[in-house]
Design brief:
Blueprint (H helix, E strand, L loop, with lengths): L3 E6 L2 E7 L2 H4 L5 E7 L4 E6 L9 H8 L4 E3 L6 E3 L13 H32 L4 E7 L6 E7 L5 H10 L8 E5 L2
Antiparallel strand pairs: 1-2, 2-3, 3-4, 5-6, 7-8, 7-9
């Protein structure tokens, strides 16, 4: 099957490609990824159509409804949320990413303040180092932090990670408290 199609609408070129999910995950169905030249992207899936039975006509049928709207923030082309469900809500990729990066920076600043406050408390208790580690068990990964007096040896850190049933024993950082 042809793996991509192009379409031009209002002077904007769109390219549709078959998403790897279509053949990588049994029972997933047929999915295409539609990209517009300004970087916007949307995925369209037909769950009841197996990849093995999909045709170029199916790809075209999923692709053709693509419509544009003016970004509600800046007026640039954006995918019409009435045609395809995305998390962009009619925003262009640039405006969406700027908003997302701003939200991320605010969350990181809040987290940094919390960690700094916790570090100050632990330093008053005599701790000199903080270890931040990701635990990789059989299920979902999660993060832990712990403190030590003196720089903890690698073996001691790895013992703690083993006790948490982590399959990876090297995903950690050691920070000296200042």
């Amino acid at each position: 099957m042809k793996q991509f199609l192009t379409l031009t609408q209002d002077g904007i070129e769109f390219t549709a490609t078959v998403s790897p999910c279509s053949w990588m995950y049994p029972g997933y169905g047929f999915q295409i990824e539609i990209r517009m030249e300004n970087g916007g992207c949307v995925h369209v899936r037909q769950a009841d159509l197996p990849y093995e039975k999909a045709t170029v006509a199916d790809m075209d049928r999923l692709f053709r409804p693509v419509k544009l709207v003016a970004c509600s923030q800046c007026g640039a082309p954006a995918f019409d949320p009435a045609c395809y469900r995305t998390n962009r809500d009619g925003w262009c990729e640039r405006c969406f990413m700027e908003s997302l990066n701003k939200t991320l920076a605010e969350a990181q600043a809040r987290d940094a303040k919390k960690v700094a406050a916790r570090d100050r408390v632990q330093k008053r208790r005599g701790m000199t180092h903080r270890v931040d580690a990701w635990i990789h068990p059989n299920g979902s990964d999660y993060e832990i932090s712990f403190y030590s007096q003196g720089e903890p040896p690698q073996e001691a850190i790895q013992e703690i990670l083993k006790a948490q049933r982590s399959k990876v024993l090297t995903d950690y950082t050691v920070t000296k408290l200042v």
